[in-house]
Amino acid sequence: MSAAAPTIARRRRSRRKIARRVAVNVTGALVFLVMIFPVYWMVTTAFKRGSDVLSLEPEWWPHNPTLANFTDAIHRPHFWDAVQNSMIVVVAVVILSVGLALLAALALAKFRFYGRAGFIIVIFAVQMIPLNALIIPLYITLSSVHQVDKLSGVIVTYLTFVLPFCIWTLRGFIGGVPKELEEAAMVDGSTRLGAFFRIMLPLVGPGLVATSIFAFIQAWNEYIMAYVLLQSQEKQTLTIWLAFFTTQRGTDWGPLMAGATLTALPVVVFFVLVHRKIAFGLTQGAVRG
Amino acid sequence: MKLRVVAAAAAVVVLSLVAATAGTARINSPTSAKATKITVWLMGDAQSNWPEAVKAANAAFTAKHPDASVDVQYQTWGDYKTKFEATLSGGSGPDVLEFGNTDVPKYSAAGALTALSKSDFPNSGTWLTALTKAGSYGGKLYGVPYYAGARGVIYRTDQYKAVGVKQAPTSLAEFTAVGQKLMAKYGGKKDPNYSAVYFPGRYWYAAMSFVYDFGGQIAKTSGGKWVGTLNSPRALAGLEAWKNAALSLSRANKTGDEAHPQQALVFAKGHVGSFIGNGWEWPYALDPKVGNPSMSNKINAYPMPSHTKGKYMPTFLGGSNLGVPVTSKNKQLATDWIAAYTSTANETLMATAGGVIPNSTTLARVNASKPTLAPFAEAAKSSWFVPSTPNWANVESANVLQSMLSNILRNPSKTKDLATKASDQITEILNS
Amino acid sequence: MTRPAEPVALTVEPVIRPARRRLRTRVGRGSVPYALLVPATAVIVAVLGYPMYKIVALSFQQYGLFELIRHQGKWIGLDNYRTVLQDSTFWQVLLRTFVFTIANVALTMVLGTLVALLLAALGKFMRLLLTTALVLVWAMPPVVSVNIWNWMVDYEFGVLNWTLTKLHLGNFIHHDWFVNPLQGFAVITAIVVWGAIPFVAITLYAGLTQLPSDIVEAARIDGAGALRIFRDMTLPILKPIFVILTSLSVIWDFQVFTQIWIIRNYRPESDYYLISIYSFVTSFNQSQYGLGSAIALIMVVIMLGFTFFYIRQMVRLGETD
Questions:
Q1: Domains of chain A with CATH codes
Q2: Residue-level pLDDT at A16
Q3: What does the buried/exposed string (b/e) look like for B306-334 if buried means 16 or more CB atoms within 10 Å of the residue's CB?
Q4: Which chains have at least 3 CB atom pairs separated by less than 8 Å from chain B?
Q5: What domains can you pick out in chain C, each with its CATH number?
Q6: Rounded to a whole number, what is the distance in Å from the CA of A62 to chain C's nearest CA?
Q7: Which residues of C sit within 8 Å Cβ distance of B?
Q8: Which residue in chain A has the smallest CA separation from B11?
Q9: ipTM of this predicted structure
Q10: pTM above 0.90, yes or no
């Protein structure tokens, strides 16, 4: 008698588990479809012939696919220059912003010091300045130190755009690490800094990843500051390159979508490289009780 | 382990900064051999439509000035003014700059451009008046006419034949009658998407032509001030004529414009009998990449007829001018480059390769001899232009005309009120 | 079959307690915190210091194209501010922006959180699939994504009109979604929220991974319901990130510009003006930089007020550590 009950309970639990599993996966698939649809439209348009782009009946799958748009896009002037420039800018921005933000976030999370509240408010307020008001004053500032038409000028500008968020987020992640782990590491005899690197850095990993994706995308897709600051054709970034698909006659949709698809690829590559770090966390069975 | 990570990170940072600055050094070195470099800002259209003209200009320029070099930087229509104004405030601006012709008065009036003398440029005696007017301010020339565009009616020859129309309409009444026949034969229940005349609501360039045709205007000066005149009886007559044509002959979006989606491409889809388009829209509709090349033997154009029989409806003369900013350090070189670029040979090339109207009436003969360009050159003979005042650009930014037009189409009975409201707005903005 | 409640409580405590125990952190430990802050602060101050000063200075001047060329503005005191605050359109637009911001932030945060929870619950493969989709959405340049949406809702060639009609949900042939501003803003909200969800979901998900899954599993086995787990275990960990994301969303949604600008084909009707478009059209587009700076400062003050609650939270978050 008593032996049957746990079996039935176990079966009921596993059936519920399977039902939940299915429901979760179905929801996941639905959300995937809804979110990806415009992206799907962009990619399929990239493969459509120009005359099929505008159609009264939607063409769910290009019935006449062509690679012409991609070849057109790649052969537009300065494509590879733009790729190189965007790469340089993004790598620099990601590394510098995450590095600087980590240091600042540590200060905010681990220390109490005079001026802390003021720093928080200033960093916060800086993000509120509308970009349109900043364009010309920023240009004047950078021009006075000869940073116009230089990638370094663009890099440093992007840093100011992303640092506040990076500092905030990392501070939040550092704050989410249980005190036990840090103290356990110190019991082991390591210094505070050693404890940080050995224990905390991997645990803040997800935060570093989320922050670096944010910095990557912000830097990758920014347009107006890059356009105003960069003059030479060879120095322009991919987003500026994309803007040239629009002329007086309108926009070349097929090649633009092809160009945009190509532009989205490095972001996805970067993400695939770092995504495993997000799931790192405490599931590794770190020090506990 | 941590040391390796830190070292690697540091190395990447250093490398990327080196690459960033080294990249700029590498790009700079070849041109530093020349003594002077002038910077030219042209729109991306020059790069895609007549790159040989740019090359020819550069060659002629460097032949005349062996110790100078040219850096042509292409700009985008959307944000070039912001970029230009940034350089005005911070330095390192261009020596030559292409403007849309409606934007020149704003910069001339503010003193951002250098006064030029007509005699420095080829064909200046026969420049198109509308372009010259747009490029002048206070009696001085600030923007050299570059090229122009005029609009005409582009239509389906097979559909016109099918409704028994053998000749181009010579009056607005005939035009409308043809439109009704087309709608009866192809439109209505047979094809709810069909438009005899594809006329999006916010297409102000074509809609305002009706106003000017009936003798009205957008605004006029009165006692030193500007007054919006869209509610004058003549302007209202024009607006009514336009409204009736658009409502009965068009199924285009009342709040859409002619570029979204591009009307030539909508025409190419086959559900449009005719549309009012620029010269370049004819070949664009037939473009093998985006249009319908099979229509090439079913397409033609004629100037839009006036409500007065035998005359043409004035067409908006769009176009670009070339100016020399005051911040330029090489004004004479800049002038010489513009002269080289607007040479007779180049302007002819722009007309043939780009389908635009060259800046001089004598050169427009080139267009008159080509069937795909002749109707537009013909239409350009009767043109209208926006009030030439620096504040006009602000009226455009505030979308006064577009809003009025799409509102009229949606509330046809309120035409007079909407026109009055728009006129008041225009008065306010132009006088601010 | 009853089970004692303590095991659940015991496993939950270590996660919440640290917040209070951190009071023992070194207080004002000499120059270390300042040294850590210097690099980031230096960059921000060096780059934005002068522009911030300039914006304030310009807001009190008449600074149009004329003055721009001569690098010399005309001092007009509070006139710019008066012009803005006395403009009835400004107040209409401001109200519209408030409503828009609240709606968008609420939708973004709720949907983003749900997607983050979904990500945490999914298996490895589905999670990678969904996250890649989210990253792709996040990575699309606004120019491209808004134009895709523009097509999807196009009057004549849009897939939305075609699909809705095919599903017999009404006759949507030649339906212009932007004639009625309410419908138009519904479309714009969809675009903004769609574009914002990935960022919120991925960041929250990253935060969620700090919550050990075996502890959650243990709690669930011990009988804790989903809501209790969320409230007692998930929320405390997510709180700092949540506060940051919400305040950032408020700041960003308040300043929405590109989506409206592009979906109305670079010429929005006055019914579609939000504060940033109003600012652009009345000042920057007309090269009135003094007026534009005044509007910008007014916007900053409003945003500071709007997010006051969050700023207080963030400052406090540090204090209770």
A1: 4-68 (no CATH), 79-284 (1.10.3720.10)
A2: 82
A3: bbeeeebbbbbbbbbbbbbbbbbebbebb
A4: A, C
A5: 88-319 (1.10.3720.10)
A6: 14
A7: 64-66, 68-69, 71, 150, 154-157, 173-174, 176, 178-179, 265-270, 281-282, 284-287
A8: A95
A9: 0.84
A10: no
